Amino acid sequence: MNRIITIEEEVPNVHKMVIDAPDVAKKCKPGHFAIVIPDEQSERIPLSIADWDEDAGTVTIYFLEVGVSTMKLARKVAGDEIDMMAPLGRESEIDNYGTVVVCGGCYGVGAIYPIVKALKEAGNTVVTIIEARAKYLLYNEEVLARDSDEIYTATSDGSHGTKGKAQTVMKDLVDGGRHFDRAYIMGCTFMMMRNARMAKELGIPSKVYLNPLMVDATGMCGVCRCDVGGETKFACVDGPEFDGADVDWEQLFKRSAQYVPHQTLAYQHKKCDIDHCGGV
Amino acid sequence: MTARIDGKDYDIIEGETILDIARRNDIYIPTLCNHPDLSAFGGCRLCLVKVEGFRAFVPACATPVQDDMVIETTEEDLDDLRRRILQLILSEHPSACIICADREECLDLHPDPTKAGRVTGCRFCPNRNECDLFDVVKALGVDDIWVETEYKDVPLYRRDPFIHRDYNLCILCGRCVRVCAEIRGVSAIAFTERSHDATIGTAFQGPLVDSSCVFCGACEDVCPTGSISSKMTRWVSIPEVTGKSTCVMCPAGCAMDVGFKWGRMTITEPSEEGENVAQACLKGRYCTVPLTNSKDRLEYPRVTTDGVLRPVKWETALETAVEGLKGFAPEEIGMIVSPSLTVEEAFLAQRIMRGLGSDNIAIASNMAGPMQKAWGGAMDRVAGIGTMTDIRDCDAVLIVGTDLSLTAAVTQVHVHAAWKDGASVFNVKIDPRKGYRHADVIEPDAYGPFMDILLEEVKAPGQQPHTPDRDAAGRIASALKDADKTAILVGPGAFRDAAEGTQVAKLALELFEAVNGTVLLPLWDGGNVQGVLEAGASRCLTPGQCIEQDSGKYSSGRNPLGEGIKALYLTHPVPEIPEGVEFVVYQGPFGSQVSERADVILPSSMFSETEGTVISLDGRVGSITSDARLPNMAKPDWKVFIDMGRALGLDGFDFEAVADITEAVGLPLEPGTHLPPGEPLPEGDRAVRVDDAVNPVGPWPCSATRYRGREIAEDVEDFLEVAASWGWDE
Hints:
The complex is a heterodimer. Chain A is an alpha/beta fold.
C-alpha cells in the first residue's frame, strides 16, 4: 500500500495526486505508467506517471474523474492509502531529433511533463502545445513553459490562446514555415487521434500514449490489445508509446466502449460507500 | 380579435400571451425559461419581440396579446440582441463543446456520455441529447462567445437520493422552482442567494431528504440543461428502443414513456398522454428500472427434490406442478392472484382455477375484499365514480386513509390544482407521515368511528357535545356540504383491519351520497386491483365482475389461505404458508421467504417486461408494452399461465398473442378510455350478492413500499433512505 501525500482537484475533473513510493521513484523513466487500485472492489486503473522525485521518494499522477473507480480515487484524502504497481510499460523513445512538438490535452497536460523534460535534456528544441475546452480547464502552463522553448495554448471556445485544438496550432505553425522532426501526443483518445492524423498530414512522425482498458498490465490478460500497423499489440508491455500514424483508432474506440453497458447499469442499484457516488 | 405578427394577421384568444399565439401558429420565438405548463417568468429575455407603439422590446412570454397589436419577431437587430443575451448565458455555462467545431464527430465517437464527476462540456453531459440550450444556440446560429467564459465552480450535490444536481450547468431559468410549486405543490426548492451568487436550492442548502422534496423528478423533466439528472440513469443516453406503457407500481396508472437499451429497461419517464399530465412519482420514475434489472430476480424454473430447490427445464417444472396439483381435490386447491398482474394474466389465472373446478381465488389486497363487501351491494360493479382529472374541478377534497405520498402520489397534482382554485383539502390519516402540505390534516384515533362522526355531522350538524374529532368532522362536513363538487378518496391505511375497512368503505359511500359528491375513488393497495377484479380473478366473480356464486358451477368459494386447503398456486408471496398445505407452486419475478418453501418455482415477469392491459383506480384502461429481455429462462406471466393451462390439459388456452386474450376477456378494453363506472360489464343479468364468501384474505403487508411482495428498498437503496425519512420504515 502507498500513502497519498497530497490530492487536489487541479481544475474541474482533473485531480493531482502525490504518492509516497520511494522504490518506484528510483526506477521511473519517461513514458512509464502505474496501476492504481483505490480499494478492494475497484478496477485497476492505468495512469501515466507525471513526475517523480527520487530524493523525496514521491510519484506524481494526474487523473480524470470518469467512472466509478476514478470517482472513488477522487474521494480519497491526504493520508489515505491506495494500492499502486509501478513503474510499468516501456520507456519513451527519446533522442536528439532537432525540433519536436509536444501536444497535451486533459490529463495529458499534466502527464506529458517527463517527456518534455527528457526531450529538452536530450538537446531538442521543444515546442509545447496544450489544449483544453476552456481557459478554466488549463493547468500546468508555467511548469511546462520552464522546460519548453516555446509554449502555445488552444481552447475550444477561444477563451485563452488560439481558438481551436492543439492540431490547429500545430498546423498554423507548419503553415507559417516551422519544421518539426517529431511529435509527441498525450491526452484522451479523441485528442490523440485528431493530433496524430494532423501530424501525419503534415508529414511529422508522431508518438502517442494509448490508454485502453487494462487489467493486470504485465502482458498476461490481453485486455489492452490494440491494433498498431496491422499487428496486435499489448499496450501494457509493448507500449503505451506507439507510432500515431499506425494506430487503428476506430478499433480502440470500440474496445474502450466494451464494458460501458455493464458499468452504466451498475449505477442503478448500489451506492458507493464513499460519497454515494454510485456503482459497485 | 386579431394581431399582426411579422406582417401576417392571426386570430387571438383573450388572455393569451404573444408567445402562446406564436407557438399555436408555429412561429419560432426562442425561449429558455418558458414552459407551456408553467407560469410566465420573463427571466431569460430570449423571447424579446418588437411591438409597435411600445418604447422597449418586450418579452413575448409575459406580454398579453391585444387586439390590433403589430408584432415583429425576426428583425436583424432583435436576433443580434438575442444572440448577445444568449452568449451571456453561455459564458456562465460550460459551453466550450456547444460552440466547438468538432462537436459532432466527438459525440459520434462517444455515443454515451463519459461518466465524469463534473460536467465540463457536452461530452460529459447526461442531458446532451435533449438540451434546450443547444437547440436555441443552433436556432440563433451562435458559434462564439464575446465575453470571458467562467466556470462557477460550485459544489456538486451528489449525496441526495435519486437526484444529482450540478448547478455549474444551471442557467437560472427557474423552471424547476415553478414546477415544484405550481404543479406539484411541494416548493422544496427556490432561488437562493443574490446577484452573481444566485442559485437554486433547498432551505439553507440542506439535503433534499430534509426538505419537502417528494423525489417526483418533475424538476429534472423541465430542466433545459443537465443541472438536474437521475443518478441511476444519467449515463444511459439515448435508448435504443422506446415505447409507451403504463406504470403498475401503484393504482394511479400513469402513462409512461419507456426506453430500452442493451436488452434492458433503462428509463421510465412520465408521458404527456395520460391523466398524470406528464407527472410521475419516485416509484414510477426512479424505482421501476432498478427493480426490473434487480440482481435477485428468479431466473430458472426450479423443483424441490430431496428438500433442495434445483433448476430444471420448463417442461419438468410444469410436469411437477401438474402432477402435484392433480393430486388434490378441486376444493383443496387455492390460488392467490397478484394485484400487479395484467387483466389478461389475471383472466388466465382464474381460468386455470375454474378449469380445475375450484373457486378458491383471492387477490393479495387488503382493500379488494372489504370493498366488494361494502360497495358490491350498492353498485353493479365495484368501481370508483368520476376520474382523477375530475378532482381538479372540485371545491372540497377529502382524503381518507392515505397521505398520497407513496400510493397514487400523482393524484396530488390534481388535488393541488383544485387547491389553487380555492378548494378545501382535508386529509384524515393516522400515520404521522409526510403528506400533501396544503391539506388540513386530521389525525383521529381510528378511521371507523371518525367516519361515523363525520356522517353524523353531515346529516345533523352540531347536535352532539364538542370533542376535537367532532369539531374537525364539523369543519369537513360544512366544507363538503358547501361545495358544488366534492371528491372523496379512500386509501389503504383504513383497510389494515378488514372489518374496519368494510365499515369505512360503506361510510365513505354513504357520505358521498349524502353530500351528492362528484368523485369517489378507491386508492387501491396494488397496481391493478381494479383490473384483476374486472378479470374476475376473485371468488364468485367472472370477467366484468359478474357474480356466479349460485350457479353451482364451482365446488366452493373458500378462503385460499383458510382451512381445508392443501395445495396453493401463488402469484404473490403470502405472509406465511398456512399449516396443512402440502404442495406450493410459486410464480413470480422475485423470490421470497415463501418461495424458498415452494415445491415448484416458475420465474415470471415484472409489469415492465410483459404486455397487456391494466386498469387504474378510476377505471382508465392502460396498455403495457415492453422490449426488455427477461432474465435467463424467465417468461412473461401470460405465457406461463398458457403453458400451465395446456399442461393441465384444460380448454381455452390456445392463445398465441396477448391481443387474443384481451379479446377473450370480453371487456371494452380500449387503451386511454375509462370503463363506464358502476355499470354491468358486459351486459348481463346479475344481482350482486354480498355474503361471507367474499370475506377478505389477509392481512397483507404494506403495499406502498413493495412491488409484488418485494421490498423496493432491497433493490433500490435510495428508496430505503427516502421511505425511512418519511416514516415508511415499518
